[in-house]
Inverse folding.
């Protein structure tokens, strides 16, 4: 049995979930050919898109539908946070099977609405079509004060290198989910981080507004891969100290280190701070620990100080869909 | 054999196709977490997304890859034209197989670049990931002068109803492609319209800048479906005259009429004009015919004057992925 009569009915169902909060702050939202958007005066627009695909990014049988809804928006919003911007509205693009999807869709839209409310980010439009497997592409539109954007390319040798939160926790949560076939305890912190990550919007904005970070990005594919991208964009290297990594709790030491270095899906912020400003970085911001894990160096390579005290090169081994 | 080593290499290949023209007019394009965008002073931002999926929107074996590249941008840009806006940049989101796709990708990027150049619309970013079948989601960012946007909802009873170009030609082109298994003569006008549609950007902007159209949208799913949406948004009905439809050439009369009423993929503009301004609408604009096909009426229904002169209700029978 079909879950909706046609595309207009599906769009109506989606819009219905968001109407109470939508429409106020976007100039024109769902229902026309395109949406209209204007940032606050003195701000520029920040734009990003992210895929979230059944089979590669989530499993329909194991991931609760409300987590899929939450996460598809949260992870795209994290790219806005990584520039120091604030997410404001989003376009939701979905490929859905025509049948057997009604209950899943309700759960999905519930989680998406929770994320949208939590981020104060409104549904502005999108596109829906039919396909065998669920595909989601979310475009988030945000704003940032003119000139305050923090790029990947601004790190300089000597900068202190920080991360927010704990690294590797989300990957640990995924391990738990796989081990239990989706029946893991939903109160577990690592599992919650895998299912309902919280993009560091306030932290990113604070760092940008205060002009603290010289470079910033979010850690979505794993530190070893993402740090390489930040360094390549800035034309620098980095040295990190394995003992300082904020690793997941409750995991044996070497395994915890591997998770922190290569685990994906954390959506924490990785940022560089000029040495003369490093004293302004508190040990935590609104309850999120900020940890100096190393520093930016001259040259190209990324090295890690291992347990024996000697440097060794760090290989990019985070998540890559094509590797 | 894999066509690219990893995601960064793929992004590099895509960016390489666009570098000569990119980067000048976008504040920040490919390569960071998000793109930065600012419209001209006095303009607001217009946003739209469109799916283009292997199997439902194109066939990898039958559609030339450069047509897929051209069309995925052109059809999304058409939604910007339908508001009276001008496309400026786009986010390209692609799901690609990891192997056997190198040659296809080159053709695709060539067609995409041609469309981007023709529309003066720059690649600003996007997301790439791996999957069995090719999926494309394009988000186009455009601008429109503050207050000049033309919505679907402004049509009033008595307005004259127009379409640009010919309706049903693209559907006719698809029929030819199917009949010949992809070997149709590429110079055929209907086939070209199916493969390389040209969004009516200049026309839409002209109608908007002159405040001529009370309501506008693009005809992408077929007149019978899209006119219903314009009328629903405006709370009006419409009466159209079958004899005035600009039908495809070289097709028997009744078949041509059915193509014009229900065929999809034309990306022509459908617009309503207040009767006191109808004299300002020329018979063609920059070589594109503008045809009055009927008028907006009170009430809800859409009727068509048939060959015998009597009205009959027109059923929405355009393309719907869920029907």
């Amino acid at each position: 049995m079909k879950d909706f009569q046609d595309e207009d009915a599906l769009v109506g169902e989606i819009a219905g979930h968001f109407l109470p909060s939508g429409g106020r702050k976007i100039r024109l939202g769902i229902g026309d050919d395109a949406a209209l958007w204007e940032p606050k005066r003195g701000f520029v627009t920040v734009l990003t898109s992210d895929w979230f695909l059944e089979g590669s990014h989530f499993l329909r049988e194991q991931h609760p539908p409300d987590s899929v809804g939450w996460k598809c928006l949260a992870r795209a919003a994290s790219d806005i946070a990584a520039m120091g911007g604030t997410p404001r509205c989003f376009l939701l693009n979905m490929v859905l099977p025509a049948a057997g999807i009604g209950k899943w869709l309700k759960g999905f839209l519930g989680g998406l609405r929770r994320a949208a409310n939590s981020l104060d980010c409104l549904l502005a439009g999108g596109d829906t079509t039919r396909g065998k497997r669920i595909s989601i592409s979310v475009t988030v539109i945000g704003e940032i004060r003119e000139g305050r954007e923090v790029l990947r390319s601004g790190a300089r040798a000597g900068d202190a290198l920080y991360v927010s939160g704990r690294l590797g926790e989300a990957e640990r949560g995924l391990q738990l989910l796989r081990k239990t076939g989706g029946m893991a305890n939903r109160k577990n912190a690592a599992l919650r981080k895998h299912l309902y990550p919280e993009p560091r919007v306030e932290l990113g904005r604070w760092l940008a507004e205060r002009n603290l970070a010289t470079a910033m990005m979010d850690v979505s594919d794993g530190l070893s891969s993402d740090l390489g991208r930040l360094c390549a964009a800035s034309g620098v290297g980095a040295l990190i100290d394995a003992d300082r990594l904020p690793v997941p709790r409750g995991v044996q030491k070497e395994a915890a280190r591997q998770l922190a270095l290569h685990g994906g899906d954390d959506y924490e912020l990785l940022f560089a701070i000029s040495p003369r400003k490093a004293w302004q970085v508190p040990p935590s911001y609104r309850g999120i620990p900020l940890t100096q894990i190393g520093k930016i160096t001259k040259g190209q390579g990324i090295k890690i100080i291992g347990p024996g005290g000697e440097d060794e090169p760090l290989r990019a081994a985070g998540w890559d869909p094509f590797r």
Observations:
- Residues 160 and 236 of chain A are 13 Å apart (CA to CA).
- Chain A touches chain B through 65 residues (CB under 8 Å).
- The longest helix of chain A spans residues 102-119.
